[in-house]
Amino acid sequence: MTPRKAVEHELSRERILEVAREQFVQHGYRDVSMRGIAKELGYSPGSLYYHFREKADLFSAMTAEDFSQLDGLLEEAVSTSPNPGRDRLELIFLSFIRFGLENKRSFELMFLIQEPGLDCYTTQSKMGSYEKFFIAVNESLQVINNTDLAKNVELIWVLFLSLHGFVSFYIHSDQSFDDIAKLADLHIQLLLRGLM
Amino acid sequence: MTPRKAVEHELSRERILEVAREQFVQHGYRDVSMRGIAKELGYSPGSLYYHFREKADLFSAMTAEDFSQLDGLLEEAVSTSPNPGRDRLELIFLSFIRFGLENKRSFELMFLIQEPGLDCYTTQSKMGSYEKFFIAVNESLQVINNTDLAKNVELIWVLFLSLHGFVSFYIHSDQSFDDIAKLADLHIQLLLRGLM
DNA sequence: AGTTTTATTAAACACTGTTCAAATTGGGGG
DNA sequence: CCCCCAATTTGAACAGTGTTTAATAAAACT
Question: Gene3D superfamilies, per this entry (chains A, B) (predicted)?
Answer without folding.
Answer: Tetracycline Repressor, domain 2
